[in-house]
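Running log. JK asked me to keep both predictions on one page so they can be read side by side. First protein, sequence followed by its tokens:
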Amino acid sequence: MKQPTYDESQDVKWDDGTYGTSEEHVRKAELPDEMMAQFDKAASMTLISIRLQDELIKDLKEVAALHGIGYQPMVRQLLKRFVVAEKKILAARNEAMQIKVDSQQQCDELKTVVA
């Protein structure tokens, strides 16, 4: 049996999109809704619908392309980063408010002791 030879030029064709991007060789997997729901649950994702300005979507796609990812995964990353940052801000604000409340209570206690 003849051993297949390795053709390095094929790597380039896969990388530059010559191979693997033809629509004639692609078909969407038809999966039952129950199976899709299982995939969504496993990925902990829920399908949502949101209306965005056309220009914003265009800009998101351009930025995502510069990062080498799709715009929807990038939007998920943006939302996650926003939520993480916002939670930190809110936690710091709550901590500062608690310190203020504690300080006020201590002042009130001192006034009571002095009086």
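And the second, directly underneath as requested:
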Amino acid sequence: MPDTTHTTDTTDTTDTALEDAARDQLALVLVPEVPAEEIDPDADMVAAYGLTSLNKVLFLTEVCEETGVDLAHFTEHDLADMKTLRDVTAALARHHHATATATVTATGA
């Protein structure tokens, strides 16, 4: 039976890194500023923090760049569904894991 413990640990670590990156980038675009560690991952980013559509685009562009996820993976519908930091992290994780798997498959690593 294959050992999946390492895979799960790696996935958890990657998800935490994605959430940390998203939290840090969101904190940078919020006005007034909110410390990254105080951002509630389940709060509506518009209602709770006043995130504007322009700042959402800036935030998503930066977090995609930082995490290596191509913003082109996301449709307009995907972006509209990203209402909370947890939504953003989940969307990033889906594409980050797919990108990482494709890279490993392509390189044979």
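Observation for JK regarding the second prediction: The CA atoms of residues 39 and 91 lie 18 Å apart.
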